[in-house]
User: What shape does this take?
Amino acid sequence: MLDYTTYWYLLPLGILIATLYNSTGISGANFWIPVFILLMKVSLLVAFWLSLVAMLFGSIGGLIGHSRQGTIVYSLVKKYILVTIPFAVVGACSIEYVNETWLLLIFGIFALVYGSIVLLKSTLLQTSHDTPPKKQEKIKYPQGALGGFLVGMVSVGLGPLILPCNINHQKVNHHAQAIGTTVIIVFISSLSAVLCRLTPSFLTALQGSTTTIMSMFIYVIPGVLIGGQIGPIVAKKLNLKAMRIYVSMLLLIVGGLMFVRFFGV
Assistant: This one.
């Protein structure tokens, strides 16, 4: 029987995470993973999968919102998914050969390293004489391939790797377009990873938590759909430097929490 009262707080949390995701281009899975692992107490593999599912629903809302705001460059989406989808499939299939606790460590390292790099570039390494990088036409396929593989394996990584590439692409006139484009690329690639992870052994593990999962997603789905509408509006108004500093701090906190969880396993 579904529990309609215990997980009510996932509604405002879903709105917050989806707004953050759709306004920055940083995968919502970065923030859903600690929620499912630390608060919901589900297994690691299930938490990684659920984080992708929650992000997918948030991306649907984001797709609608970014389409309304005109912040999607579809030509870039078409080019990137040529490599992100197959590598996401490879990453998802490789989970069977990696110990699940090590996946948690990989995710924690990624969050800490990426958060630190973004923070340093936005503060200590930035000078008043910095000029915006020259716009490029080249598609960064290696970043797309690596990001796709990471999404398939640990649910995160694609957004942070291709967002800077999209920001500096000549077809992108505003950072909100780079964010909207990145959100859609991550959505399509993550969908591939979600479907590939549905192996018989995983479905067996998933069945043991079906009632709890459905009780949670009663609130998660409307929350992320609402946040998906708010995020694109915020993206157009948010200062890019402030956005990067804010997101980097959140990622450092998330990475730290995952290290605590890893060494406590």
About this structure: Residues 10-264 form one domain. The longest helix spans residues 210-237.
